[in-house]
Amino acid sequence: MTLRLRPHHLLCLLTYAGKGYSPAFVANLDAVASRVASGETVEIVAGPDDICRPVAADPDHHCHAARIVRRDRLAARDVGRTLGFSLRPGRRLILASQVEGLRRLRGR
């Protein structure tokens, strides 16, 4: 199966500390982080993704806001520069080694 992630959520996964907006959101983010760490393919998407799932049904939630779309654009630009390739919707990645390396550094 493929995980759908918006660009700024790549950064969220790197800094995730087991906290969030609600218990359902945290449980979902734990599951997504585990799937990424296990080597599941990630597809970059525009707009709400698998991390947004517990809150995306609310049209007023910030995951639909213009400032979040801007955050995605900036994250795609900056992370893409770091990785050396474009992070446009449809791009597929496997990030397991990066996530696992960060967990070891943080002692998780």
Helices and strands in order:
Blueprint: E1 2-5, H1 7-15, H2 23-37, E2 41-44, H3 66-83, E3 92-94, H4 96-106
Parallel strand pairs: 1-2
Antiparallel strand pairs: 2-3
Helix pairs in contact: 1-3
State the main characteristics.
108 residues, mainly alpha, 4 helices, 3 strands
What does this structure look like?
The chain has 108 residues and is mainly α. It has one domain. It contains four helices and three strands; from the N terminus they run E-H-H-E-H-E-H. Strands 1-2-3 form a three-stranded mixed β-sheet. Helix 1 packs across helix 3 (66-83). The two termini are 25 Å apart. The model has no long low-confidence stretch (mean pLDDT 84).
Helix and strand content put the structural class at: mainly alpha
Low-confidence stretches: none
Kindly give the count of domains: 1
Major sheet: 3 strands, mixed
Strand order of the largest sheet: 1-2-3
Q: Work out the number of β strands.
A: 3
**Rounded average pLDDT:** 84
Please work out how many helical segments DSSP would assign. 4
Oligomer: single chain
Backbone CA Rg: 13 Å
Order of helices and strands: EHHEHEH
